[in-house]
Amino acid sequence: QKEVEQNSGPLSVPEGAIASLNCTYSDRVSQSFFWYRQYSGKSPELIMSIYSNGDKEDGRFTAQLNKASQYVSLLIRDSQPSDSATYLCAVNRGGKGGYNKLIFGAGTRLAVHP
Amino acid sequence: EAGVVQSPRYKIIEKKQPVAFWCNPISGHNTLYWYLQNLGQGPELLIRYENEEAVDDSQLPKDRFSAERLKGVDSTLKIQPAELGDSAVYLCASSRGGYNEQFFGPGTRLTVL
User: Fold this and answer.
1) Over the stretch B29-68, which tens digit does the pLDDT of each residue have?
2) Between chains, do B42 and A4 touch, taking CB under 8 Å as contact?
3) In sequence order, what E strands does chain B have?
4) Range of lowest pLDDT (A52-61, A97-106, B67-76, B78-87)
5) Chain B: residue nearest A97 by CA?
6) Are B103 and A45 in contact (CB under 8 A)?
7) What is the number of alpha carbons within 13 Å of residue B94 lying toward its C-beta?
8) Does A102 touch chain B (CB under 8 A)?
9) Mean pLDDT in residue range A66-81
10) Both ends of chain B: CA-CA distance in Å?
11) Cα–Cα nearest to A49, from A33, A67, A61, A69
């Protein structure tokens, strides 16, 4: 079992629809959770972070966390073609000394078509 | 605020040659990370620095890879000798430490022929 699992996609949604991206993780002691967007040939760009159970909204993005189910998701409302990218889920499992140790999933490719 | 700076952006070398990558983190970020990303995969941590100290290098192949962060600011990652399987994107990231968010540089795309 991978530590952070994502559906590789592609997830295809029409412009204006809601895109729902999901991620599960195996380490119950994980403390913080991040979503990165990565365009082809570019480096990952942080778009959302979430630390406690529930929802966190930022513009068109909503991150949802359920630690009991070890599940984190990202909703993108009013999807635009410019949202087409790979979305990486990253989980902080707490490394040596409690410092950051991000474990990434392989990413879900999102395609928003006009 | 300037982002993480990396150089070079691209590097093509022949196998068995040495190569070095440089990274300058965001000002004020005391934690610096080197990641490796293969095509279709998420980044994988190679080494993490807290100031000058390498606090997690468990994933660094120490027979051929080395890293340093003198003075606790910029950092260099070296491969000697390079192998065909080292072809990948090498990413540098920085954060304020703790559980804070990490921000990535543009990466160096290495091709070993």
Assistant:
1) 999 999 999 999 999 999 999 999 998 888 899 999 999 9
2) yes
3) 5-7, 10-13, 19-24, 31-37, 44-50, 53-56, 65-68, 75-79, 88-95, 103-104, 108-112
4) A97-106
5) B55
6) no
7) 22
8) yes
9) 97
10) 37
11) A33
